[in-house]
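Budget justification, computational time. The allocation requested in the original proposal was used primarily to generate structure tokens for proteins on the priority list. As evidence of use, we reproduce two of the resulting records. The first is shown immediately below.
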Amino acid sequence: MAGKKYREAAKQIDPEKRYSLEEALRLVVANKVAKFDETVEMAVRLNVDPRQADQNVRGTVVLPNGTGKVARVLVLAKGEKEREAREAGADYVGSDDLIKRIQEENWLEFDRVIATPDVMGAVGRIGKILGPRGLMPNPRVGTVTFDVAKAVAEVKAGKVDYRVDKAGVIHARIGKVSFGEAKLVQNARALLEAIVRSKPSTAKGNYVKSVTVSSTMGPGVKVDTGEARTVAAAA
């Protein structure tokens, strides 16, 4: 059963109404439930069939105001690229030694993995560990690259991955309640624009079916999809 604070917050939101992005995020911030700084998430339902390879929408975006969380970055590289990664601020840098640690100890004290192309053969040995957790480096999202310094900097600056799930929904964090309405709106728009730029050519009809924003412990607020499409189309 929902707690008293949640029920009180839910009373402030009309479940039948589709709010503007500004109104929706204003309600999320105003109706925070927990004492801690809650994460704010956006859920975007798309008119795609994720079972089709050409409609498996995914990509990355650097949120203008970051996510409110500094990601722990592991870089798998050798030689000069190790030095570049350390200087860029990577939390862990190595190659065979760290791959072995992940393989034998199930060590996973990191949030993102970046690898240079020349070590991906070895990284494949831990694919069954990293893959299910969404940590496997992938060239499509810029985590398989020789430009490790740029990749680390982007992740530290608030770069997030987004990927449609089996139900056709993308879930992504857009910041913290403490950011306030204005910064959350900027981040939300950046995410929407990126998702629309990723629209498959085979997608038919209205691409964005629904948008909902919520905090970790708070109720969801529905966003007017007409406005969402307008925001994204202006990208």
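The second record produced under the same allocation is shown here.
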Amino acid sequence: MYFSCNVSFSSLPVFLPTILKDMGFTAINAQGLTAPPYFLSFLVTIFTTWVADRLQQRGLMIAFLSTMGAVGYVLLATCESVGVRYFGVFLAASGVFPCIGNILPWVLSMFIPKVTAVLEYMYTNNDDTDNQGSDSRRGMGIVILNVVGQCGPFLGSNIFPSEDGPRYVKGQAICAAFMFFTTFLALSLRALLAWENKRLDQKYGTKAEREARKAGEKEGVVTSEENYGPDFRFVL
């Protein structure tokens, strides 16, 4: 997912002024018209990451954002109207950049059964559990994510040759394809993690069952455990 998004993520800021200029705008106006899509994508990034944290639904958010970005690229590739294509720029920017902002924390997302104990958890526990199961896996997960994901710009920065102007259909189509691919990957990974959570529920019991067993135990903060302990669940 990170690789696929980086194909579009790396090409959009570099080639957007050129794309806008080839729509008929002057060079200075093309530079200025890149600001509104970027500002909207900034707002969408802040909002969607907050919503995903609240709902604990990274996969669905990434799928929605990547689909929106893909639609934007489809409009850029297939439409000739300047207004529609500029609208496509808004969709592309508001899909690609927030998508990156949700993929990165999905690697490190924590599942804390007692939401009301978050602050106490943060100050009394040193071992944060995430979607990797342990600190060592989290570290290696970030390494793998960046080693693979940062190869995306090698492709993204070479799919908008000048001879493809003014519509750059090939580059836009490639970006759209990778964003749709991101949607598929996000939904597939979410389905896999949901299946893993069901296996953990069968092995250790559901959240309600675990809390019932702990009702008579000493009061304390319920936390996830490293290496997929009883209270560990993947963030979807």
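A brief technical remark on that second record: The radius of gyration is 21 Å.
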